[in-house]
Each structure stands twice: as structure tokens, then as C-alpha cells.
Amino acid sequence: MHLYMIRHGQSHVNLAEWDSGNTDEGLTELGQKQASALGKWLPQHVPSVEVIYTSTMRRALETAGHLAEAYDFPLTYDDRLREIGNNRWDHSAWPNDDLPRDYADYWASERPFSTVTPFTEGGETFIHFRARVGIFLEGLVERHREDTVVAVCHGGVIEATFDHIFNVGPWRRCEIWNHNTGITYFEYVEHPRRETWRLHFNNRTCHLEEMA
């Protein structure tokens, strides 16, 4: 399996001046340009895909829409690809128009067994988040062993993917940052007595150079 994990384009919630808490916002004008550049670049380098998964949050949906148009291919929606704190502890998604507005004053990986949305009953912890991303990934292995898969998601989801694949414990010692529309490419292989995952690259942003 060839797995391309892609962070969404710049959203209003990514802006330094954003002060309205956690809401489901779409892309900025720059984010739309980033997503458009991604839609032009990716099919030239990954000409065929079997499935395009996307988070059900607006910033990811708008980004994935550019890929759906470029590939002339339908999207597959998956709540497990939502950013941390936007699902309940049982992995079900909060309604997009009624998300927990305030996160905890501690970083999720600092207290991995504490809810990241303490002001909303039923919120997930960092470990719940890691579990839902891991369940998504293991499902991909079962369904798409021979396929090329694209997943449009969030920076936290890509970090949790690294945690799962590299078998990181509850307390993380290194953050993995991804730019908006940065591409991470993993390959799942089945060689006896060898690692089952290969990391080819992380946070590739060649398509953004064409915007300059």
C-alpha cells in the first residue's frame, strides 16, 4: 500500500490572530491557493489512486475537493481523520456546528490520559485520539494492501500516524510539524523479518513553490 497523508490548506483557525476558539472553519484565500496547487501537482506525480479519504471537517473537505476534481474521483468521508478534540471518547464526531470551543490549558501529549476538552463532557484524550487514528490505519492495511491511498486530514492526525507506525509510547518526545498541504508518504510492505512500514518523505511542499 502507498499511503499519502496530506494536511489541509491554511484555515482561518490557523491564523495567529484567530481568537474564536475551536470552530469548524474553511480555508483562507491562501489556503484555497495551496489546495489548488496541490490538486495540480499531485496527479502529475501520483497519477492513479484507488481511494481518497478525507476528514469531515470543513478545512479538510475544501482541500480534498480540489483533489476530487483533479482525479475526477469521489471522496470517502471518515470521522476518524478529524483533528484531536473534535470527536468524543468513543470516536464519534461532535456536530461541526457545535464543537467543543475551548481546549485544555495543557498540551495533549503532556497529559495523554486527560481529556483535551475538559469543559465538554465525553471529550477524548490524546490516547483516545491515538487509538482512533491507529484503528483507521490498521483498517487501511486490511482493505487496501495493494492500493494507492490518499488521506486528507490534519497535522495532529499525521503526528499520530507517526506515533502508531513508529510504536511511540504514551509520552511523545518529538513533535512532527507539517505545513499546510504538506505531503507525507508511507509505504506498507510485507517482507518476512523486516519492518512493515517505510517512510519515503514527510512534509513535502514542492507544489507550493509554483505559487511564488
| Mean pLDDT across all amino acids | 95
SS elements, strand count? 6
The low-confidence parts are: none
Q: Based on CA inertia axes, which overall geometry fits?
A: globular
| Tally of alpha and pi helices | 5
User: Radius of gyration in whole Å, from Cα?
Assistant: 17 Å
Instruction: Estimate percent helicity.
Output: 25-40%
Strand order, main sheet: write it out: 3-2-4-1-5-6
Largest sheet: 6 strands, mixed
The CATH fourth-level homologous superfamily: Phosphoglycerate mutase-like
According to CATH, what is the class? Alpha Beta
Number of domains: 1
The helix-and-strand class reads: alpha/beta
Strand content: 15-25%
Query: Might you state the CATH topology name?
Result: Rossmann fold
Shape-level CATH architecture: 3-Layer(aba) Sandwich
End-to-end span in angstroms?
Answer: 33 Å
State the order of secondary-structure elements, H for helix, E for strand: EHEHEHEHEEH
Describe the structure concisely for a colleague.
With 212 residues, the chain is of the alpha/beta class. Helices cover 30% and strands 16% of the residues.
Task: Name a few traits of the molecule.
5 helices; 212 residues; alpha/beta; Rossmann fold; 6 strands
Describe the protein in words.
The protein has one domain (2-209): Rossmann fold. The longest helix is centred in the middle third of the chain and has 18 residues, at 126-143. Helix 1 (29-45) packs parallel to helix 2 and helix 3 (126-143) packs across helix 4. It contains five helices and six strands, in the order βαβαβαβαββα. The model has no long low-confidence stretch (mean pLDDT 95). Strand 5 and strand 6 form a beta hairpin. The protein is globular and about 45 Å long. A six-stranded mixed sheet has the order 3-2-4-1-5-6, with helices on both faces. The protein is α/β, with parallel strands linked by helices and 212 residues long. The chain starts with a strand and ends with a helix.
